[in-house]
């Protein structure tokens, strides 16, 4: 990151340690550091002052910014260190007598280049009639979050909403007004130089930046990913020997840039000094390639199979089913997904499991340690608990835009339940699916009615509008007790209209531009920009399949942009010709999903769901839910 430059101490309150020692990274503070006028060294062209070299550490900078009347040292620390050592111990003395320079003295090798850069920058300041040059902050081709947000005045969900994402738990006070050092693209120097910019607007990881000195002029504002390698806290240039050069457009505005910066930056906030380290640490993932896991069988949701981690991108795993010889039979999910488990999990709770034809592990494959998987909350099933036959409402995993009438078909160990969608179950139970008792995807009877959500009635049910009271009596069933469901609603921070990047769970390899359109307690309605509402998905606020704006750019994952108008027109025409059938919607999904039910499971029958109206009579079984949306 430092491009060959070594950092040097800027401690102004105590003397430096030995020349060979390295500074330790400070722990992340609870709030962002305040920039103080305490002798920070800024290596930028002053317009009047010449260059100076610190006689202690060898730092090259503007003479006027150096310490003391003689301008011999870059800081109090170097002055004290020099005083406490003989001249032979100083860096310049080492060089003069032919001794090898210390680590800090290597900066002296950069003197001619830095001096030439400063002189060249001063010369360029007088050439106001030259054409302006500015590197693009975002790719010219393809989708740009910055342009998308600016042109529509959108708001993005903050990074703190995504605890599983990089920096999600240590984002701190990064907000508008924070100052950073970034490459100066408004200059024609032959090498990279930097300048200070302030955050004008935040959108997830992306920040709209404005160079210091532009005041209310937004002509050179640019978007960048705040976690990128070219974004640094104020002071980084000083410690790494990089020059701070004002943008050419405004070089004529001030004759003394040092005074301007001191005035502008004193009391301002910048990034923590170890911000880049924290970013790097938060992007280290424990899952490695060749690890074996148990994952849901995408062709039979009622069972699991063994799969092998093929690749890891941003915490998302590409899993290849162990029996796939050509490695094309795969499944994507996040490492914290409730769909993956350690080897032996299915047997331990009594879940169906497809045995592999492979009798022994392939060379290099090894079982993922059990501690790597997301832990579920422990439950007490000794007292009143879920029982087979109880009715509830559940998100249909084959049609995530629908919450359906469902039944508990089997109670497994450790709080897991096998659930089936009423009216559309296979006779052998091969389309049952597994949810934990604390899952945010299951709800008590009456949840949809109270929260004004359309409940999908059983397939073929004729008595519409659907009423739970009548249905329970007709089926001689009972509703699962409300107190058994997860009632925790975290302070998630999401608001309707916020933009984010979301996995299309019907084709989980795709991450798309999306919007939060409804919020019901901890339940979010996710709309994929450019697509019809029928493709919306209900997702929990803590789902690992939701990410901040800029996540794909940060991790190198491919982002799916909003659908173009031509695709939307084609999609609309096609959707009118198709019935809203569970299997058909799954197979005919907008992105040709690979997660399909076996043909022998469907027996060629076309499933169709009738859309029922919400019940207007509450049975009181879900009274703890309070409507949060007008």
Structural account:
With 630 residues, this protein is of the alpha+beta class. Among the domains are: 174-271, SH3 type barrels; 285-367, Roll (SH3 type barrels), CATH 2.30.30.140; 390-479, Roll (SH3 type barrels); 498-560, SH3 type barrels (Roll), CATH 2.30.30. The strands form 5 sheets. Strands 3, 22, 23, 24, 25, 26 and 27 form a 7-stranded mixed beta sheet that branches. Strand 24 and strand 25 (537-540) form a beta hairpin. It starts with 50 loop residues before the first strand and ends in a 28-residue tail after the last helix. Mean pLDDT is 77; it is low at 1-30, 37-49, 86-141 and 574-630.
Condensed summary:
Helices cover about 15% and strands about 20% of the residues. It has about 625 residues and is of the alpha+beta class. It comes from Pipra filicauda (Wire-tailed manakin).
Low-confidence parts:
1-30, 37-49, 86-141, 574-630
Could you name the CATH class of one domain? Answer: Mainly Beta
Largest sheet: 7 strands, mixed
Task: Kindly estimate the percentage of residues that lie in beta strands according to DSSP.
Answer: 15-25%
DSSP helix count? 14
What overall geometry do the principal axes of the alpha carbons give? elongated
* Helical coverage, percent range: 10-25%
Mean pLDDT: 77
> Do you know the CATH architecture of one domain?
Roll
Beta strands, count: 27
């Amino acid at each position: 990151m430092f491009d060959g430059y070594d950092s040097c101490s800027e401690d102004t309150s105590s003397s430096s340690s030995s020349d060979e020692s390295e500074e330790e990274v400070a722990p992340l503070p609870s709030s962002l550091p305040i920039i103080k006028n305490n002798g920070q060294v800024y290596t930028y062209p002053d317009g009047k002052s010449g260059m100076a070299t610190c006689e202690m550490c060898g730092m090259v900078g503007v003479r006027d910014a150096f310490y003391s009347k003689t301008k011999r040292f870059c800081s109090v620390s170097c002055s004290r260190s020099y005083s406490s050592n003989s001249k032979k111990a100083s860096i310049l003395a080492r060089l003069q007598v032919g001794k090898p320079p210390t680590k800090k003295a290597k900066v002296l090798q950069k003197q001619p280049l830095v001096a030439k850069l400063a002189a060249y920058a001063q010369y360029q300041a007088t050439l106001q009639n030259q054409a302006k040059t500015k590197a693009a902050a975002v790719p010219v081709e393809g989708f740009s979050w910055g342009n998308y947000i600016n042109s529509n005045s959108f708001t993005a969900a903050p990074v703190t909403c995504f605890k599983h994402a990089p920096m999600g738990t240590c984002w701190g006070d990064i907000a508008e007004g924070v100052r950073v050092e970034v490459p100066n693209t408004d200059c024609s120097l032959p090498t990279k130089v930097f300048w200070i910019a302030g955050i004008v607007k935040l959108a997830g990881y992306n920040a709209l930046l404005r160079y210091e000195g532009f005041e209310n002029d937004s002509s050179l504002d640019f978007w960048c990913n705040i976690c990128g390698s070219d974004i640094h806290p104020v002071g980084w240039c000083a410690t790494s020997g990089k020059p701070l050069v004002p943008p050419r457009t405004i070089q004529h505005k001030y004759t003394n840039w040092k005074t301007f910066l001191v005035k502008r930056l004193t009391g301002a906030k910048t990034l923590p000094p170890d911000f880049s380290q924290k970013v790097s640490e938060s992007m280290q993932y424990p899952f490695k390639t060749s690890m074996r896991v148990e994952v849901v069988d995408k062709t039979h949701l009622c069972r699991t199979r063994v799969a092998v981690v093929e690749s890891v991108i941003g915490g998302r795993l590409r899993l290849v089913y162990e029996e796939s010889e050509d490695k094309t039979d795969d499944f994507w999910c996040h490492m914290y997904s409730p769909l993956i488990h350690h080897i032996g999990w299915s047997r331990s709770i009594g879940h169906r499991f497809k045995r592999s034809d492979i009798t022994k592990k392939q060379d290099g494959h090894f079982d993922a340690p059990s501690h790597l998987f997301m832990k579920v909350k422990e439950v007490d099933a000794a007292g009143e608990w879920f029982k087979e036959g109880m009715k509830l409402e559940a998100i249909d995993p084959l049609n995530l835009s629908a919450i359906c009438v469902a039944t508990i078909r089997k109670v497994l160990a450790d709080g897991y339940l096998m659930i089936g969608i009423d009216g559309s179950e296979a006779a052998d139970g091969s389309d049952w699916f597994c949810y934990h008792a604390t899952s945010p995807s299951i709800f008590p009877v009456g949840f949809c009615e109270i929260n004004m959500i359309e409940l999908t009635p059983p397939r073929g049910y004729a008595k519409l509008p659907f009423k739970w009271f009548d249905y329970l009596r007709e089926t001689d069933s009972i509703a699962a007790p409300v107190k058994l469901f997860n009632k925790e609603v975290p302070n998630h921070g999401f608001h309707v209209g916020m933009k984010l990047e979301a996995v299309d769970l019907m084709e989980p390899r795709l991450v798309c531009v999306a919007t939060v359109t409804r919020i019901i307690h901890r339940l979010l309605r996710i709309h994929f920009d450019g697509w019809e509402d029928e493709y919306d998905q209900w997702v929990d606020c803590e789902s690992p399949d939701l990410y901040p704006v800029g996540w794909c750019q940060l991790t190198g994952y491919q982002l799916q942009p909003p659908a173009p108008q031509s695709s939307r027109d084609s999609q609309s025409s096609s959707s009118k010709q198709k019935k809203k059938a569970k299997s058909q919607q799954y197979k005919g999904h907008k992105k040709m999903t690979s997660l399909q039910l076996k043909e022998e499971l469907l027996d060629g029958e076309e499933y169709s769901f009738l859309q029922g109206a919400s019940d207007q009579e509450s049975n009181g079984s879900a009274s703890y839910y309070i409507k949060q949306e007008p």
